[in-house]
Amino acid sequence: MFKNKTLLISGGTGSFGNKMLRYFINNTNIKEVRVFSRDEEKQDRMRNEIKDERIKYYIGDVRNYKSVYDALYGVDFVFHAAALKQVPSCEFYPIEAVETNILGSNNMIDACIKNKVKNLVMLSTDKAVYPINAMGMTKAIMEKLMISKSRNIIDENITLCATRYGNVMASRGSVIPLFIKQCKENKPITITDPNMTRFLMSLEESVELVLFAFNNAKNGDIFVQKAPACTIMDLALAIKEIFNTKNDIKIIGTRHGEKTYETLINKEDMIKTIDMGNFFRIPADTRDLNYDKYFIEGNINTASKEEYNSDNTKRLNKDEVKEKLLNLDYVKNEILLTV
Protein backbone atom coordinates (compact mmCIF):
# COMPACT_ATOMS: atom_id res chain seq x y z
CA MET A 1 0.00 0.00 0.00
CA PHE A 2 2.78 2.45 0.88
CA LYS A 3 5.41 1.22 -1.57
CA ASN A 4 6.74 4.12 -3.67
CA LYS A 5 4.26 6.49 -1.98
CA THR A 6 4.89 9.88 -0.37
CA LEU A 7 3.39 10.90 2.98
CA LEU A 8 3.30 14.37 4.53
CA ILE A 9 2.79 14.87 8.28
CA SER A 10 1.85 18.40 9.28
CA GLY A 11 3.02 19.26 12.76
CA GLY A 12 5.45 16.43 12.13
CA THR A 13 7.90 17.35 14.90
CA GLY A 14 5.29 16.90 17.65
CA SER A 15 4.75 13.80 19.76
CA PHE A 16 2.33 12.16 17.31
CA GLY A 17 4.36 13.14 14.25
CA ASN A 18 7.53 11.72 15.76
CA LYS A 19 5.87 8.40 16.59
CA MET A 20 4.15 8.15 13.20
CA LEU A 21 7.36 8.99 11.35
CA ARG A 22 9.23 6.24 13.16
CA TYR A 23 6.43 3.78 12.37
CA PHE A 24 6.67 4.41 8.63
CA ILE A 25 10.46 4.41 8.52
CA ASN A 26 10.73 1.17 10.51
CA ASN A 27 7.71 -0.79 9.24
CA THR A 28 6.98 0.18 5.64
CA ASN A 29 8.72 0.53 2.30
CA ILE A 30 7.40 4.05 1.82
CA LYS A 31 9.27 6.18 -0.69
CA GLU A 32 9.30 9.47 1.24
CA VAL A 33 7.97 11.06 4.44
CA ARG A 34 7.74 14.85 4.52
CA VAL A 35 7.82 16.57 7.90
CA PHE A 36 6.00 19.90 7.62
CA SER A 37 6.28 22.28 10.58
CA ARG A 38 7.28 25.82 11.49
CA ASP A 39 9.92 25.01 14.14
CA GLU A 40 13.36 24.69 12.57
CA GLU A 41 15.00 23.81 15.89
CA LYS A 42 12.75 20.77 16.38
CA GLN A 43 13.32 19.76 12.76
CA ASP A 44 17.08 19.96 13.27
CA ARG A 45 16.82 17.87 16.44
CA MET A 46 14.72 15.26 14.63
CA ARG A 47 17.12 15.23 11.70
CA ASN A 48 19.97 14.34 14.06
CA GLU A 49 17.95 11.74 15.97
CA ILE A 50 16.43 9.90 13.01
CA LYS A 51 18.81 9.49 10.11
CA ASP A 52 17.04 8.21 7.02
CA GLU A 53 17.29 9.56 3.49
CA ARG A 54 13.56 9.01 2.97
CA ILE A 55 12.75 11.84 5.42
CA LYS A 56 12.44 15.34 3.94
CA TYR A 57 11.90 18.47 6.01
CA TYR A 58 9.72 21.40 5.01
CA ILE A 59 9.60 24.65 6.97
CA GLY A 60 6.15 26.18 6.69
CA ASP A 61 2.98 27.19 8.48
CA VAL A 62 -0.52 25.87 7.83
CA ARG A 63 -1.68 29.49 8.06
CA ASN A 64 0.25 30.20 4.85
CA TYR A 65 -1.61 28.53 1.98
CA LYS A 66 1.29 28.72 -0.47
CA SER A 67 3.73 27.01 1.89
CA VAL A 68 1.18 24.20 2.37
CA TYR A 69 0.40 23.93 -1.35
CA ASP A 70 4.08 23.81 -2.36
CA ALA A 71 4.92 21.14 0.24
CA LEU A 72 2.09 18.91 -1.05
CA TYR A 73 3.32 18.65 -4.63
CA GLY A 74 3.67 14.93 -5.43
CA VAL A 75 2.24 13.80 -2.06
CA ASP A 76 -0.08 10.77 -1.91
CA PHE A 77 -1.23 10.83 1.73
CA VAL A 78 -1.46 13.47 4.47
CA PHE A 79 -1.81 13.19 8.24
CA HIS A 80 -2.77 16.63 9.53
CA ALA A 81 -1.59 16.99 13.14
CA ALA A 82 -0.58 20.67 13.18
CA ALA A 83 -2.64 22.49 15.80
CA LEU A 84 -2.74 24.79 18.77
CA LYS A 85 -3.87 22.33 21.43
CA GLN A 86 -3.20 23.86 24.86
CA VAL A 87 -6.62 24.67 26.31
CA PRO A 88 -5.61 27.62 28.57
CA SER A 89 -3.49 29.36 25.92
CA CYS A 90 -6.29 29.02 23.35
CA GLU A 91 -8.66 30.57 25.92
CA PHE A 92 -6.41 33.61 26.24
CA TYR A 93 -5.61 33.86 22.52
CA PRO A 94 -8.66 32.42 20.72
CA ILE A 95 -7.95 34.20 17.42
CA GLU A 96 -4.63 32.33 17.24
CA ALA A 97 -6.53 29.05 17.63
CA VAL A 98 -8.89 30.16 14.84
CA GLU A 99 -5.95 30.99 12.54
CA THR A 100 -4.28 27.60 13.01
CA ASN A 101 -7.02 25.10 13.81
CA ILE A 102 -9.71 26.45 11.46
CA LEU A 103 -8.14 28.55 8.71
CA GLY A 104 -4.94 26.50 8.66
CA SER A 105 -6.93 23.28 8.41
CA ASN A 106 -9.00 24.78 5.60
CA ASN A 107 -5.76 25.59 3.78
CA MET A 108 -4.67 21.98 4.21
CA ILE A 109 -7.95 20.59 2.82
CA ASP A 110 -7.96 22.91 -0.19
CA ALA A 111 -4.28 22.31 -0.97
CA CYS A 112 -4.78 18.54 -0.74
CA ILE A 113 -7.69 18.69 -3.18
CA LYS A 114 -5.76 20.90 -5.61
CA ASN A 115 -2.70 18.62 -5.45
CA LYS A 116 -4.84 15.49 -5.92
CA VAL A 117 -3.76 13.92 -2.63
CA LYS A 118 -5.44 10.52 -2.26
CA ASN A 119 -6.08 10.49 1.52
CA LEU A 120 -6.21 13.22 4.16
CA VAL A 121 -6.62 12.17 7.80
CA MET A 122 -7.18 15.10 10.19
CA LEU A 123 -6.53 14.76 13.91
CA SER A 124 -9.28 16.07 16.17
CA THR A 125 -10.00 15.81 19.89
CA ASP A 126 -12.65 14.88 22.43
CA LYS A 127 -12.79 18.58 23.28
CA ALA A 128 -14.56 19.14 19.94
CA VAL A 129 -17.66 17.38 21.33
CA TYR A 130 -19.99 19.67 23.31
CA PRO A 131 -17.14 22.22 23.27
CA ILE A 132 -16.86 24.80 26.03
CA ASN A 133 -13.37 26.11 25.25
CA ALA A 134 -11.77 27.83 22.27
CA MET A 135 -9.56 24.88 21.43
CA GLY A 136 -12.52 22.49 21.30
CA MET A 137 -14.65 24.96 19.35
CA THR A 138 -11.98 25.44 16.69
CA LYS A 139 -11.46 21.69 16.38
CA ALA A 140 -15.23 21.20 16.07
CA ILE A 141 -15.27 23.68 13.17
CA MET A 142 -12.30 21.84 11.64
CA GLU A 143 -14.40 18.66 11.66
CA LYS A 144 -17.33 20.52 10.09
CA LEU A 145 -15.05 21.90 7.37
CA MET A 146 -13.81 18.41 6.57
CA ILE A 147 -17.36 17.05 6.36
CA SER A 148 -18.58 20.00 4.29
CA LYS A 149 -15.73 19.73 1.79
CA SER A 150 -16.18 15.96 1.54
CA ARG A 151 -19.79 16.48 0.38
CA ASN A 152 -18.69 18.58 -2.57
CA ILE A 153 -15.69 16.63 -3.83
CA ILE A 154 -16.00 15.92 -7.52
CA ASP A 155 -12.75 13.95 -7.71
CA GLU A 156 -13.68 10.63 -6.08
CA ASN A 157 -10.02 9.63 -5.78
CA ILE A 158 -9.54 11.68 -2.59
CA THR A 159 -10.84 10.65 0.83
CA LEU A 160 -11.20 13.19 3.65
CA CYS A 161 -11.69 11.89 7.19
CA ALA A 162 -10.81 12.64 10.81
CA THR A 163 -9.86 10.88 14.00
CA ARG A 164 -11.03 12.02 17.40
CA TYR A 165 -9.24 10.96 20.55
CA GLY A 166 -8.75 11.89 24.18
CA ASN A 167 -5.57 12.57 26.11
CA VAL A 168 -2.48 11.00 24.56
CA MET A 169 -0.40 9.91 27.53
CA ALA A 170 3.00 11.58 27.96
CA SER A 171 2.60 13.71 24.82
CA ARG A 172 4.02 17.23 24.87
CA GLY A 173 2.07 19.50 27.17
CA SER A 174 0.17 16.63 28.81
CA VAL A 175 -0.11 16.20 32.56
CA ILE A 176 1.99 13.04 32.99
CA PRO A 177 5.38 14.71 32.31
CA LEU A 178 4.35 17.49 34.72
CA PHE A 179 3.45 15.04 37.51
CA ILE A 180 6.71 13.14 37.02
CA LYS A 181 8.71 16.37 37.11
CA GLN A 182 6.98 17.42 40.32
CA CYS A 183 7.70 14.02 41.87
CA LYS A 184 11.39 14.21 41.01
CA GLU A 185 11.71 17.76 42.33
CA ASN A 186 9.88 16.82 45.54
CA LYS A 187 7.21 19.42 44.88
CA PRO A 188 3.47 19.04 45.52
CA ILE A 189 1.62 17.30 42.69
CA THR A 190 -0.88 19.86 41.46
CA ILE A 191 -4.23 18.46 40.37
CA THR A 192 -7.23 20.46 39.26
CA ASP A 193 -10.13 18.28 40.44
CA PRO A 194 -9.61 14.83 42.01
CA ASN A 195 -12.82 13.49 40.44
CA MET A 196 -12.06 14.78 36.94
CA THR A 197 -11.86 11.91 34.44
CA ARG A 198 -9.86 11.67 31.23
CA PHE A 199 -9.48 9.06 28.50
CA LEU A 200 -6.10 7.31 28.41
CA MET A 201 -4.46 6.55 25.08
CA SER A 202 -0.81 5.82 24.32
CA LEU A 203 1.02 7.30 21.35
CA GLU A 204 1.09 3.82 19.82
CA GLU A 205 -2.71 3.65 20.09
CA SER A 206 -3.04 7.07 18.45
CA VAL A 207 -1.00 5.74 15.52
CA GLU A 208 -3.27 2.66 15.36
CA LEU A 209 -6.33 4.91 15.23
CA VAL A 210 -4.99 7.03 12.37
CA LEU A 211 -3.95 3.96 10.37
CA PHE A 212 -7.36 2.36 10.94
CA ALA A 213 -9.06 5.53 9.69
CA PHE A 214 -6.71 5.63 6.71
CA ASN A 215 -7.59 2.06 5.75
CA ASN A 216 -11.35 2.17 6.39
CA ALA A 217 -12.62 5.70 5.82
CA LYS A 218 -15.26 6.92 3.46
CA ASN A 219 -15.53 10.63 2.76
CA GLY A 220 -16.54 12.64 5.81
CA ASP A 221 -16.05 9.85 8.35
CA ILE A 222 -14.83 10.46 11.90
CA PHE A 223 -13.17 7.59 13.78
CA VAL A 224 -12.89 7.05 17.53
CA GLN A 225 -10.92 4.38 19.35
CA LYS A 226 -12.48 2.76 22.39
CA ALA A 227 -10.38 3.76 25.39
CA PRO A 228 -10.44 3.45 29.16
CA ALA A 229 -10.37 6.42 31.51
CA CYS A 230 -9.27 7.27 35.02
CA THR A 231 -9.61 10.02 37.57
CA ILE A 232 -6.84 12.60 37.85
CA MET A 233 -6.39 11.56 41.49
CA ASP A 234 -5.72 7.92 40.56
CA LEU A 235 -3.28 9.07 37.88
CA ALA A 236 -1.36 11.17 40.42
CA LEU A 237 -1.33 8.35 42.99
CA ALA A 238 -0.11 5.85 40.38
CA ILE A 239 2.79 8.12 39.42
CA LYS A 240 3.69 8.63 43.10
CA GLU A 241 3.90 4.85 43.55
CA ILE A 242 5.95 4.32 40.40
CA PHE A 243 8.56 6.84 41.53
CA ASN A 244 8.24 5.89 45.20
CA THR A 245 7.78 9.44 46.45
CA LYS A 246 5.80 11.00 49.28
CA ASN A 247 4.86 14.26 47.57
CA ASP A 248 1.81 16.06 48.83
CA ILE A 249 -1.11 16.41 46.45
CA LYS A 250 -2.33 19.98 46.06
CA ILE A 251 -5.76 20.71 44.57
CA ILE A 252 -5.56 23.95 42.57
CA GLY A 253 -9.00 24.04 40.92
CA THR A 254 -9.98 23.71 37.28
CA ARG A 255 -8.16 25.75 34.67
CA HIS A 256 -9.76 27.99 32.06
CA GLY A 257 -11.98 25.96 29.72
CA GLU A 258 -11.70 22.58 31.46
CA LYS A 259 -14.51 20.04 31.80
CA THR A 260 -15.08 17.51 34.57
CA TYR A 261 -15.23 14.75 31.95
CA GLU A 262 -14.66 14.59 28.19
CA THR A 263 -16.96 13.20 25.50
CA LEU A 264 -15.74 11.37 22.39
CA ILE A 265 -19.15 10.81 20.77
CA ASN A 266 -22.25 12.83 21.58
CA LYS A 267 -25.68 11.31 22.07
CA GLU A 268 -26.91 12.60 18.71
CA ASP A 269 -24.05 10.99 16.75
CA MET A 270 -24.29 7.71 18.67
CA ILE A 271 -27.54 7.00 16.80
CA LYS A 272 -25.67 6.63 13.51
CA THR A 273 -22.32 5.42 14.91
CA ILE A 274 -21.08 2.05 13.65
CA ASP A 275 -19.28 -0.26 16.09
CA MET A 276 -16.17 -1.71 14.41
CA GLY A 277 -14.70 -3.72 17.28
CA ASN A 278 -12.02 -1.60 18.92
CA PHE A 279 -13.18 1.47 17.01
CA PHE A 280 -16.28 3.52 16.29
CA ARG A 281 -17.03 4.98 12.86
CA ILE A 282 -19.20 8.10 12.71
CA PRO A 283 -20.38 8.47 9.10
CA ALA A 284 -21.04 11.92 7.70
CA ASP A 285 -24.58 13.21 7.32
CA THR A 286 -24.84 13.21 3.53
CA ARG A 287 -28.28 14.82 3.27
CA ASP A 288 -28.69 18.15 1.49
CA LEU A 289 -30.94 20.97 2.71
CA ASN A 290 -34.14 19.48 1.22
CA TYR A 291 -35.04 17.67 4.42
CA ASP A 292 -38.59 16.76 3.43
CA LYS A 293 -37.41 14.17 0.91
CA TYR A 294 -35.64 12.25 3.70
CA PHE A 295 -38.57 12.20 6.12
CA ILE A 296 -39.68 8.76 7.29
CA GLU A 297 -42.35 8.32 9.94
CA GLY A 298 -41.24 6.39 12.98
CA ASN A 299 -40.35 6.55 16.63
CA ILE A 300 -37.96 9.15 17.97
CA ASN A 301 -34.94 7.27 19.29
CA THR A 302 -32.55 10.10 20.15
CA ALA A 303 -33.08 9.58 23.86
CA SER A 304 -32.31 5.86 23.66
CA LYS A 305 -28.62 6.37 22.94
CA GLU A 306 -26.09 7.39 25.56
CA GLU A 307 -23.07 9.53 24.72
CA TYR A 308 -19.61 7.94 24.94
CA ASN A 309 -17.57 9.82 27.52
CA SER A 310 -14.77 9.44 30.06
CA ASP A 311 -17.30 9.04 32.86
CA ASN A 312 -19.17 6.04 31.40
CA THR A 313 -16.35 4.18 29.65
CA LYS A 314 -14.27 1.52 31.41
CA ARG A 315 -12.76 3.11 34.53
CA LEU A 316 -9.22 2.07 35.49
CA ASN A 317 -8.27 1.97 39.16
CA LYS A 318 -4.91 3.12 40.49
CA ASP A 319 -3.16 -0.22 39.96
CA GLU A 320 -4.49 -0.54 36.40
CA VAL A 321 -3.35 3.00 35.63
CA LYS A 322 0.06 2.15 37.05
CA GLU A 323 0.31 -0.91 34.79
CA LYS A 324 -0.58 1.18 31.73
CA LEU A 325 1.94 3.86 32.65
CA LEU A 326 4.73 1.31 33.06
CA ASN A 327 4.26 0.28 29.43
CA LEU A 328 5.05 3.79 28.18
CA ASP A 329 8.55 4.38 26.79
CA TYR A 330 8.53 7.86 28.29
CA VAL A 331 7.90 6.54 31.81
CA LYS A 332 10.47 3.76 31.38
CA ASN A 333 13.10 6.33 30.39
CA GLU A 334 12.21 8.58 33.32
CA ILE A 335 12.59 5.62 35.71
CA LEU A 336 16.05 4.86 34.28
CA LEU A 337 17.07 8.49 34.80
CA THR A 338 16.23 8.24 38.50
CA VAL A 339 18.34 5.13 39.13
TrEMBL record:
Tree of life domain: Bacteria
What would you give as a GO molecular function for this chain, any one?
UDP-glucose 4-epimerase activity
Q: Quote the Gene3D superfamilies the UniProt record gives.
A: NAD(P)-binding Rossmann-like Domain
- Keyword Transcription regulation in record: no
InterPro entries named in the record? CapD_C, NAD(P)-bd_dom_sf, Polysac_CapD-like, Polysaccharide_Synthase-Rel
In the record, biological process GO terms are: lipopolysaccharide biosynthetic process
Judged by the first EC level, this protein's enzyme class is: isomerase
Catalytic reactions of this protein: UDP-alpha-D-glucose = UDP-alpha-D-galactose
**Which EC numbers characterise this protein's activity in its record?**
5.1.3.2
Q: Where is the Polysaccharide biosynthesis protein CapD-like domain?
A: 7-282
Keywords from the UniProt entry? Isomerase, Lipopolysaccharide biosynthesis
Q: Which residues form the UDP-glucose 4-epimerase CapD C-terminal domain?
A: 285-332
The family annotation for this protein states: Belongs to the polysaccharide synthase family.
Under the heading PANTHER family, the entry gives: UDP-N-ACETYLGLUCOSAMINE 4,6-DEHYDRATASE, UDP-N-ACETYLGLUCOSAMINE 4,6-DEHYDRATASE (INVERTING)
Q: What is this protein called?
A: UDP-glucose 4-epimerase
- Organism for this UniProt entry: Brachyspira aalborgi
Q: What is the lineage of its organism?
A: Bacteria, Pseudomonadati, Spirochaetota, Spirochaetia, Brachyspirales
